[in-house]
Amino acid sequence: MKCVRRHPWPMVLLTIGLQHLIHLPAQADEYIDPGLRSISPSRLQHQPGDKQPKPRSSQSPVAAVPGKEDTQTLGLEQAVRLAVDWHPSISEAIGTLYQQAEGINVAEAGYYPQIAGGIKGGYNSGYGSDASSQSVSISLKQMLYDFGKVSNAVEAARAKAARSQASILLAIDQVGRDTAFAYVEVQRYQRLIDIARQQIQGIGGIVDLAKQRSDMGASTRSDVVQAQSRAEGGMATLQEYKAQYARWQATLGNLLGRQTSPQVTDAFPDSLNQSCNTPVITDALPAVLQAAAQRTQAQAELAQAKAEAYPTLSLEPSFNQYLDNNYDSQNPAIDRTQVGIFLNLEVPIYQGGAISARSRAAGYALTAADAAEDAARLQARQGLSESQAQTSGLTRRLNSLEFRETTIKEARELYGRQYLELGTRPLLDLLNAEQEIHQSRFDLANTQADLRRLQIDCLYNSGALRRAFGIDHSTIQHVEILP
């Protein structure tokens, strides 16, 4: 019997080839579409763009670290920029975007050959006896035509990425709004504390005056008690405002990523005072962009589900290499190496109703996306109209309060002269006039702060907050923000 020598080199070549193929995806994972790192609401209003070249990038979405703390006074715009430059909610949204970017790569992989390899061993029967068999096999599957299954999967993945981009804009707007609100509240209570101290000083002067007149016998002891009671009430008001001031300072510090509370100015940019007169552009609002991307995704998934009912044509070469020496013991005509190439037309026949269920689910998702877009537009219009109405009313109230403070000042001066010189005015009227002056100042400070909050709210609901605070045309946590 002729002895045939079995060479080990085919196994070595197959092992090297398999190792090379295994390492190929590791490089593909490092590719992210650069267009996804540049976010523009005007571009997001359209469907996801065409595929662009994807340069290699090793950058990972790591949250930015807050800058070195200092005691400098922060302006409103500076505080908003510091917050969005580090806030983890924005980092989370960016991480989700990178996840969806890799989802695009996964979907686009359907255009390329799918290579699989393995080693199998076992027993086969035939030709009157059983024998063991071990072999290495490699198979390749290249999709030729699939009625849009892969293309719609890619479109759905790009829509998910666009939705993540809109989520980043929404996170920036929310962090910017919350930071501006906290800044205004710190301004509010900073001003209220100053007024409360002025009130204590004013009532303290009346207390001293009442004591002097009581010691001289010109007034009763009850005047001193009333004045001291008002002074204690003023101290209680001051402590309440101090507590609120500390609270909002802590809130602002947390939004800025600082352990120490920053100092703020009392200034408010003039450019923001007419924010409620800005027309709303609902198509560019992040929530509307999210809903639009959700609709695009649902449309692509619906088309993909319908394509699943059609056949897929693919080219499938295969390679099989026997490892044992008994591969031809039952059939001497069998070669150790077997190669084949086939055209495969695969048609789904029955999957338990999965295809029709996916189609219905995508149709419901499309309906939900339309409703979500309508809801986002309605919420923006409602929020803006409410803020505009409140702004109009508070502006008129502000003018009334300024006039009221002037008239009360004149009344206090008159009451003071009548109490000291003529003795015809009781101390209670003087105390009431002093408190009314400071109450009008409290109301004035609160109204001004409320107006500032409403201006910021208008910016948020009209989609103009990023432009107002200089975030457009800037880079936030490695992502470029464009108009």
TrEMBL record:
The keyword Membrane applies. InterPro entries: OMP_efflux, T1SS_OMP_TolC, TolC-like. It comes from Pseudomonas abietaniphila. Residues 1-28 form the signal peptide. The lineage of its organism: Bacteria, Pseudomonadati, Pseudomonadota, Gammaproteobacteria, Pseudomonadales. Belongs to the outer membrane factor (OMF) (TC 1.B.17) family. It holds the Pfam family OEP. It is found in: Cell outer membrane. Residues 35-70 are annotated as: Disordered. Keywords: Cell outer membrane, Membrane, Signal, Transmembrane, Transmembrane beta strand, Transport. One of its GO terms (cellular component) is cell outer membrane. GO terms for molecular function: efflux transmembrane transporter activity; porin activity. This is Outer membrane protein, adhesin transport system.
